Amino acid sequence: ILGGKAARRGNFPWQALTGINGRGGGALLGDRWILTAAHTIFPKGGVQNNVSLEQLAEEADIFLGHTNVDELHKMGNHPVRRIFIHPDFNPNDEHNFNGDIALLELKNPVTLGPTLLPICLPDATNTSFYAHGHMGYVSGFGVDKNRISSSLKYVSLPAVAQEKCQSWLDSNKKGIPMVFSENMFCAGFLEGKKDTCQGDSGSVFTVLDRESGRWVATGIVSWGIGCGTGYGFYTKILNYLDWINGIVKEDR
Amino acid sequence: SSPVPRGSPLFGEIRSPNYPKPYPNNNISIWDIQVPKGYGVKLTFKYFDLEPSESCFYDYVKIKADKRDLGRYCGQLGSTTGNHPGRKEFVSKGRKMHLEFHSDFSNEDNGTVIPYRGFLASYRAVDLDECDPNNAAENYERPQCQHFCHNYVGGYFCSCRIGYQLQSDQHSCKVECSSELFTEASGYLSSPEYPQPYPEYLRCNYSIRLQKGLSIALRFLEPFEIDDHQQVHCPYDQLKIQARGREIGEFCGREPPGIIETNSNEVDILFLTDDSGFSRGWKIHYTSEKIRCPQLVPRDQFTIIRDLQPVYQFQDYVVVSCKTGYNLMEGDKKLVSFTAVCQADGTWHQPMPRCEVVNCGSPKNLTNGAFSYLKEPANNEYQSVISYRCHEPYYHIVTGTGGERFTCSPEGTWLDQDGQKRIPSCLPVCGKPVHPVVEVQR
User: Fold this and answer.
1) Distance (Å, rounded) from C-alpha A99 to C-alpha A97?
2) What is the C-alpha separation between B175 and B198, in angstroms, rounded?
């Protein structure tokens, strides 16, 4: 997280620290699901992409319930039973993060408390959270000032209109033919240093639903061109509600 | 003595000495006629010609039978002196007849010797009616038969009234009451000759045998008379009653016992008498009904006896249940149902169960939640109520339409208000951090 602040315990109780192919983030859904980005499991251009999901599940580390990485490690890993990668995600296409969403099922449900609570999913009919300028928070254990963070940080970012994202992308892609699909949205600032960065992938972009008073995950940290140099791109969770519910509710 | 045929002929003749020639003087001849047993002797004179004299003082024939003199005879047919037998028939009551012939030293009348030819007698055996009490001969002084006498040619036999048996002496009769068996559901039995005095030396045994499950009741009729003694209990005659080998009582006197409920389908009545007495005996009317079982008594206030009846008899059954919320228990064993049958021996085939309050056991634990008892005392018994709750604010409860309250049901399970067993769930509460980010600086 660039330009953010240190989170206090209980600010982002859904925040997960993942260690699958490097540091990543995730968000607790219910009491045994972790929502994350697919590329934290299968990195673009990664060398381990032929490893099976079962093997990855065994090797995956999931930490929950604290803002400090060391404390998280002390609290212990939550083993993963199964991994679900969205079928649209293509790890071999380095320029297309479409379908960058995954679910991890924990072997054991976690006990919720002040420092460990799930995040809500958006109402399928409510698109207002993606309106231009709608502020949200992103938290993560990712890079801060070129250093991997030892504690949870967060930053407040506005959602950006789709055409502005595309326009900025068209002008700033620096020769990288990145795909900006309808399953993504971008957020952040053109100027300033507030942004997400490496290691934050998989963490969620959350907004406060003022009607219900609940925090809702609208996006998953997915990709960006550099850090703090423009908008960041997020997986648009609203478009994957059916996929998520299809897995989570079927299993219930 | 003149000879008579040996043995016991059925007929024969007796002649005076020298007959048909005149009999000799100074002669004594004796004949003992004996016919077969069962016959009497019938004697008649075919010819009779003896010196006549007053009272047959000189010559005569004397006839004896049955230790009696049947007469002393002499004379000639039509003579005015003497005692001519004529056509008289002499009949003995016994099988013997004794004849004696006596002649004196002469048969002269005024110096003239008169040849008297003597006599020719014939006898034959005649059937003796031994059954006629008037015919009691010297050998038959006692009654011929105790009950009935039947004469036949050459003999007689005795028989007894119904219920009596002719004894080995072929004369006396004794009551046969040693194995009287009664198998009807009701009936009468009495001492021999009742209401006339009962005989001596009785050993009567009356057995009532009815099918299992029946109970015999005995009721004594009037008169009731059995020899007794004021100081000693039944020293002479006894009426003993047993039921299935169990002694019920020994009775005598003039006061009949009350109605005796034997509670048994097998009763034995033994009547023993001594050699004397003049009591009229007894008579019993016995009846039977199905044997009764004792009234069932509930062991607790929660027991229900279906269709409780004032009396339970053999083959009746009862169905026992418990009030709602209680289980039938036999020891530590829970019974699905209970039926007891009244047995043939008047006992119930299994003892009364008890009713124990239903215990639903500990309620299921609610993951990420808990339950609490809503009633005192807090237990898991019938009608206890619990309420589930979740650990808020992290979880919220999801219940069926029956809500979060569960009641211990009569079936021993915790049920919600819709009668469902499924307990609520505690679902995570999302998006409600206890300590959300609060931006103060603007």
Assistant:
1) 6
2) 10
Six token digits for residue A117 = 């609570």
Per residue in A66-114, pLDDT tens? Answer: 999 999 999 999 999 999 999 999 998 999 999 999 999 999 999 999 9
Tokens at B34, concatenated: 């004996």
CA-angle at B16, arms to B10 and B18, nearest 5°: 120
Residue A127 vs residue A134, higher pLDDT? A134
* Sheet-wide strand order for B317-322: B303-305, B317-322, B338-341
Mutate to test the interface with B, among A5, A12, A31 (most CBs of B within 10 A): A31
- Chain A / chain B CB contacts < 8 angstroms: 69
Q: What is the pLDDT of residue B377?
A: 86
Which helix (H) or strand (E) covers residue B285, if one does? Answer: strand B283-290
How far is the C-alpha of A37 from the C-alpha of A234, rounded, in Å? 9
- Evaluate the CA torsion angle A46, A51, A56, A57 in order and state its sign: positive
Asked whether the predicted pLDDT for residue B2 surpasses 50, the reply is no
| Interface confidence (ipTM) of the complex | 0.91
Q: Is the pLDDT of residue A9 over 50?
A: yes
What is the SS3 assignment for B327-385?
A: EEEECCEEECCEEEEECCCCCECCCCCEEEECECCCCCCCCCEEEEECCCCCCCECCCE
**Tokens, residue A217:** 């995950």
Instruction: Tell me the C-alpha distance between B347 and B303, whole Å.
Output: 20
Instruction: Tell me which chain B residues have a C-beta less than 8 angstroms from the C-beta of A121.
Output: 430
Indicate the length of chain A as a whole number: 252
φ and ψ of B198, to 5 deg: -80, 155
Rounded CA Rg of chain A: 16
The percent of residues above 90 in pLDDT, for chain A, comes to 83
Residues of B in contact with A114 (CB under 8 A): 394, 434-435
Question: How many Å apart are CA B265 and CA B194, to the nearest integer?
Answer: 25
CB within 8 Å: A215 and B433: yes
Cβ contacts of B349 within 8 Å, gap of 6 or more: B340, B341, B342, B343
CA distance B313 to B315: 6
Which residue reads 């009490």 in tokens? B133
Determine the Cα angle at A161 with ends A160 and A167, to 5°. Answer: 100
